[in-house]
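In this supplementary section we document a worked example of the pipeline. Step one takes a protein sequence of length 97 as its only input; no multiple sequence alignment statistics are reported here. Step two produces a three-dimensional model, which step three serialises into structure tokens for compact storage. The input and output of this example are shown verbatim.
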Amino acid sequence: MLEEYKSFLSTLTRLSREEEEALWKQYKEEGLLEARKSIIEHYQPLVFREAMKYGLQEAVTLDLIQEGTVGLMESVERFRPSLGVVVLDNGLPGLQK
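The serialised model returned by step three reads:
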């Protein structure tokens, strides 16, 4: 399962600042759920890096990735683009509990 997740991560492309800002606008101002999905996917490699830091068994690492993704989703909901703060400055609560 972890290999499948790594394979998924390898398909992601890095967004430019302009692309990311456009996605935030589409989601927060227009309610476009596809933009929300793209934002969450954009930050998945960070969740992966954080989960891999601990060198735990695969099942535990997958649990950390799941918790981190939930925390990321919560951060996306709380984020206010007008403040000019990157979403991750809100933290990944799922990995920091």
